[in-house]
Write a structure and sequence with these properties.
Layout lengths: L2 H7 L1 H13 L8 H11 L5 E4 L6 E6 L2 E11 L26 H16 L6 E9 L7 H7 L12 E8 L8 E3 L2 E4 L1 E10 L3 E2 L9 H19 L7 E9 L5 E2 L2 E10 L2 H21 L3 E8 L4 E3 L1 H15 L4 E3 L10 H7 L2 E7 L24 H18 L9
Parallel strand pairs: 3-4, 3-5, 5-16, 6-15
Antiparallel strand pairs: 1-2, 2-4, 6-16, 7-14, 8-12, 8-13, 9-11, 10-12
Helix pairs in contact: 1-10, 2-4, 4-10, 6-7, 8-10
The chain binds zinc ion.
């Protein structure tokens, strides 16, 4: 079988599907139009298909002709609340919603992998689970699908899992990249309301002004990162939202801000949680104010099994040539709920460069209203996912990375 050539033969249909999905972007856990498009695209394939109960997921199982490992392949399907700025002829038809992270390519690519592998069903020794997942962008769709049984969809637990994400500005178009070990950070949210007592801006001593205290917290959080955590222990705390007051001469009753927190280990995440809450409460108390502080854990760190990341690299090099693979020099501080799959199943996540222009370093980043992804990479993405499944099944029921 030559999956690269077979993928090229269905490229036009995959591109058409991707553009259809691009026109109907949907946010969150309920993606009815996207789900319908996926079900239509899978129609007629020898797959056992189930849809989610609490979310509009699609789980498709391909039972191979013989016994062997269960390989899970994942594609996320949701879009973002971003107003697209593009002059392509397949722009979003939903106001204020856009496939700004390229998940339309992931969905179409996973359909491609399902078609390629279905054509070789009888030759496969093992089963493949295709995980079409809603709600990656902050809705924990992966967690919901795991709770509904996606990891055991083939009738026994998955033995390996792979997922692919397109990037516009990280690597040149067509280049695959990953790394052994930690690849993406864990995320958490810090939510603070500083409660004072409002008054006239000319007489602050008669009020309890929450604004200077909130400002102090924002800067003290940065000091916390550098004074309480080792330089070799990555922590990012970014206050992305800060609101108080209505007019310059009115001291407001309260001030609110939110921060995203990125870390790489459970221990670090727990220490940031404890210390950030204490810091904000302590600063408020020092000024005679109070602080209501909430800290919510979101996604765990995305950690690739070393031998599985090496297996991905080797597969890319053999399928497409050494120039198509670059090892990520350092982890990425983004977060990803495929991390939940990788906590339970050995596997690897990877990125695929898909910048639309010639120079990826100038490309608008994922999540930008101007982010553009070139769907000429789709066929290769589908071929790689299918090839990973085939090779992993050939490796059999071992957990070691020995490849044939
Ligand atoms: Zn994404």
């Amino acid at each position: 079988m030559n999956l690269r050539e077979e993928a090229a033969a269905i490229e036009d249909e995959l591109i058409a599907l991707r553009r259809e999905l691009h026109r109907i972007p949907e946010i969150g856990l309920e993606l009815p139009k996207t789900q319908a498009a996926v079900l239509a695209a899978l129609d007629g394939l020898p797959l056992e298909i189930t849809t989610g109960e609490g979310l509009s997921s699609v789980t498709a199982v391909l039972h191979g002709g013989g016994p062997g490992p269960v390989v899970l392949l994942r594609g996320d399907m949701d879009a973002l609340p971003v107003a697209e700025e593009s002059d392509a002829d397949y722009v979003s038809g939903h106001d204020g919603v856009m496939h700004a992270c390229g998940h339309d390519l992931h969905t179409a690519g996973l359909v491609g992998a399902a078609r390629l592998l279905s054509a070789h069903r009888a030759e496969l020794a093992g089963d493949v689970v295709f995980m079409f997942q809603p709600g990656e962008e902050g809705f924990d769709g992966a967690g919901h699908m795991i709770a509904e049984g996606v990891l055991e969809a083939a009738g026994r637990p998955a033995d390996a899992a792979y997922g692919l994400h397109v990037v516009s500005d990280m690597v040149p178009r067509g280049v695959f990249t990953t790394r052994p070990g930690p690849m993406m950070s864990a995320s958490a949210g810090l939510f603070v309301r500083v409660v004072g007592a409002g008054g006239h801006g000319s007489r602050p001593h008669k009020a309890l002004d929450p604004v200077p205290a909130a400002c102090e917290m924002v800067t003290a959080l940065q000091t916390l990162v550098t004074r309480r955590f080792s330089t070799f222990e990555p922590v990012v705390v970014t206050v992305g939202s800060l609101h108080a007051g209505t007019k310059r001469n009115i001291i407001p009753d309260d001030a609110v801000f939110e921060a995203t927190v990125r870390t790489f280990s459970q221990d670090t995440a727990e220490r940031v949680a404890e210390q950030a809450v204490r810091l904000c409460e302590g600063i408020a108390a020092a000024h005679g104010l109070t602080a209501e502080v909430r800290y919510d854990g979101e996604y765990p760190a995305t950690v690739n099994r070393a031998e599985e990341a090496d297996f991905v690299a080797e597969t890319v090099r053999e399928l497409f040539g050494a120039e198509r693979y670059l090892e990520m020099p350092e982890p990425n501080m983004g977060s990803e709920d495929f991390s939940r799959v990788l906590q339970a199943v050995p596997g690897s996540y990877l990125f695929l460069g898909a910048c639309a222009g010639d120079d990826h370093t100038l490309a608008a980043a994922n999540h930008s209203p101007r982010a553009a992804f070139d769907d000429s990479v789709l066929a290769d993405g589908a071929a790689l996912l299918a090839e990973l499944a085939v090779r992993r099944m050939r490796r059999g029921l071992t957990s070691s990375g020995a490849t044939s």
